[in-house]
Amino acid sequence: MYVVAAKGLTKYYGALCAVDGIDFGISKGECFGFLGPNGAGKTTVMGVINCFMPPTSGEVKVFGIDVTGNPSLIKSRIGVMPQDDSLDPDLNVLENLIVYARYFDIPKKDSEPMARELLRFVEIEDKAGVNIKGLSGGMKRRLLMARALINNPELLILDEPTVGLDPQSRRSVWEKMEALRAKGVTLILTTHYMEEAEKICDRVAIMNAGRIVTIDTPVRLMSEYKGSLEDVYLKLTGRPLAA
């Protein structure tokens, strides 16, 4: 059974079709990437999977549960690292994690040691008492990852996890993702960085204008189309990734 399975997933915003009847399945322990530029439909797919919004039509199941049937149960088992900075600027680093843990009914006596352990995992434990405004962009991305892990999720959704980061910070986030996958956590990420997809993903779905053009491993795609993953995207969609 797939951890996430979609059949005919379609999402409209008014007259705009953001996701157009896509099918995919993601296995336990897999790192699965949705590739494409802004507007391709990647973030909308993530929103449906994490029960932030319902599909207009089609079926999406997470852990075998329909996303429209029991969203609270699904949310209790997943973590979400959003693209936007949604940290509370009035709290320090440690407080951001402890307060977020309340959403999962985790008492403070448990959440504080968990939070400190997660800060060690993402290597910003020395920033526990620092206000959010004092963090660099890379540190904020790592804190968002720590926050997404506070409920010990089986599935982690990462929306553009390294957007705007310098190469060193990007590699640090990749290392954390690899460590999580080694522990059996299923990872789903959206990205428009082809190097990120090549290094991290077991399989990728290339999206364009709300549709999935193809799903395969990066290695097979690059071998079949005889080029980099960015070359593959250009050949399949007819436009460069930055377009």
How would you summarize what this structure contains?
With 243 residues, this protein is of the alpha/beta class. It has 2 domains: 1-77 and 156-243, P-loop containing nucleotide triphosphate hydrolases (Rossmann fold), CATH 3.40.50; 86-152, no CATH class. It has helices at 42-49, 71-75, 93-101, 108-121, 137-148, 167-182, 194-200, 218-225, 229-237, and strands spanning 4-13, 16-26, 31-35, 57-62, 65-66, 78-81, 155-159, 186-191, 203-208, 211-216.
Write the layout of secondary structure elements.
Layout: E1 4-13, E2 16-26, E3 31-35, H1 42-49, E4 57-62, E5 65-66, H2 71-75, E6 78-81, H3 93-101, H4 108-121, H5 137-148, E7 155-159, H6 167-182, E8 186-191, H7 194-200, E9 203-208, E10 211-216, H8 218-225, H9 229-237
Parallel strand pairs: 3-8, 3-9, 6-7, 7-8
Antiparallel strand pairs: 1-2, 1-4, 4-5, 9-10
